[in-house]
Design brief:
By secondary structure, the chain is mainly beta. Helix content is 6%, strand content 39%. The N and C termini lie far apart (83 Å).
Length: 139
Amino acid sequence: MEPRKNLAPCFIGSGTLVNPRDIIRALETLEALDYTYEVDGQTIAQGAATLVKLSYDIDAATMIVNGCLFLNAASFTYLDFTTEDEQCVMRLFGDGSTLTLRADKERDVVEVPRGQLRLLEEAAFDASFVLSDDEDDED
């Protein structure tokens, strides 16, 4: 009899994800959402946003600006997801922080064709928007 090979995990309805690829795949299911950001159990911010970019980059931040969520999975250690009231709730955990995301099915969202990722091209960030103030002005 052959030894049984290890199988990849299977999560249905709830689970804890630690693999960055799995975290990104779970987050790709979101678009319009409500969020709550907590640090050490204290609510810092909450509101509504639209997921516009997903990344995994240790040099970039996760941020919500003008209702747009730029989510960097490298900002978090793991993701828990559960089903509450027939709705998926995702909680991303970092060092003392928790970002809770709930899909908002009632808001209008832009239809994204199946299989097409909502990732911006690097060319969208033109170098002309980067300013450098490295030189000291000696007037």
